[in-house]
Write a structure and sequence with these properties.
Length: 370
């Protein structure tokens, strides 16, 4: 869906909900509608016009790049200017993102004679189905993420264990991957990378620390980059040294669980079926109590966005989203033994031609570095 169609959709939304205009304030939605990044910007769409408001730091760039918008320079106090601008438009009912503002923002934006009507997840359905352009960007991002992961493996193989005095830490490895992101033209991490060695890997969202990466221990690497405004998310658990038979056994279970979930990726299937298949497989293996998070999540402009891939017994009453062409999400089963180790595997899946496609070239086999 190009920008014109997106704007037409919003104007139809305005009409259906008896609004005079709609105010967008959330950074991800503003980027989605414009492909323009600004730390201080607002979008106001009326039945006829499209306004992009930003300050002097971005004004000239916005004028050059945004062809379907009337660019408005925010002067002096942002809230005062915004209120006066809304008054000038003679708006009666203003729609706004109630999940995209703070209580303070809403209080400051009170305007006499303008009725405010809040909506949640206004662009949810649009953003869940990626355009061809978005999908191509995401594919590029996946390839770049693969490239960074391969650089990490090379560092581990060439440096750490050729030198007995090596003191590489989790944070040191994270610093290396961040430098690689900028080296290949990325815009940074899509989330703070999780580098978890040894028992730290048993904590799903471990915060990378000064813990040394040592031999005879697992190493969980969960990384993502921002590529042309879109996020990636990728996890592998490898082993430094020779893994125990227990570790290898659990690894195979997690790997098989990933494929159990992936088999459900078909257009028309309820999306929770992915997580359900993973949970049922872990249950059969007697490991379900060690699976403590959802089976995946949508990804795009944000690293976590709809749809959420999660199953529980009453889910049919709450989640009726079905898999459709154009959806992009992760599948990420994991098993975690407290104070011992954890194993998680994650790939981005793109739904094309009614089925799931994987574009990462990194296989799911256990990688050993010794």
């Amino acid at each position: 869906m190009n920008i014109i169609k997106k704007l037409d959709w919003i104007k139809e939304f305005i009409h259906k909900n008896n609004l005079s205009a709609f105010l967008f304030t959330s950074v991800p939605n503003i980027f989605y509608l414009t492909q323009f990044k600004s730390s201080n910007a607002f979008i106001i769409i009326t039945k006829k016009d499209n306004y992009f408001l930003t300050d002097s730091r971005y004004f000239e760039k916005a004028q050059r790049e945004l062809k379907n918008w009337e660019i408005v320079l925010i002067k002096d106090d942002t809230f005062y200017f915004l209120k006066e601008f809304l008054k000038e438009l003679k708006i009666e009912v203003l729609g706004f993102e109630k999940d995209g503002i703070t209580c303070e923002f809403r209080e400051k934006l009170k305007i006499r004679n303008i009725k405010f009507k809040g909506f949640s997840k206004v662009l949810k359905e649009l953003r869940m189905i990626k355009t061809n352009q978005e999908i191509e960007i995401l594919k590029e991002g996946i390839r770049k993420t693969d490239q960074i992961y391969k650089s990490i493996l090379k560092l581990l193989e060439d440096s750490i264990f050729s030198n007995k005095n090596s003191v590489l830490t989790e944070l040191g490895l994270r610093g290396f991957l961040v430098s690689k992101i900028f080296e290949i033209g990325g815009y940074g991490e899509s989330f703070p990378a999780i580098i978890a060695t040894g028992k730290n890997s048993s904590i799903p969202h471990w915060e990378s620390s000064k813990t040394k990466i040592k031999k005879n221990s697992p190493l969980l690497i969960d990384i993502g980059i921002i590529w042309k405004g879109y996020c990636t998310d990728f996890t592998r658990t490898l082993y430094i040294g020779t893994p125990s038979s227990e570790f290898k056994k659990i690894y195979e279970v997690v790997k098989n669980a990933w494929y159990k979930g992936f088999e459900k990726v078909k257009e028309g299937t309820y999306i929770f079926e992915i997580d359900k298949a993973i949970r049922e497989y872990f249950y059969k293996k007697g490991l379900d109590k060690f699976y403590i998070h959802a089976g995946g999540h949508g990804i795009g402009i944000e690293v976590h966005e709809p749809p959420k891939i999660f199953y529980k017994k009453d889910i049919r009453k709450k989640q009726k989203e079905i898999i459709k062409d154009g959806m992009v999400f992760t599948i990420e089963p994991g098993i975690y033994f407290p104070n011992k180790f954890g194993i998680r595997l994650e790939n981005i899946v793109i739904v094309e031609k009614r089925k799931g496609e994987i574009y990462s070239e990194i296989d799911l086999e256990l990688k050993k570095i010794d």
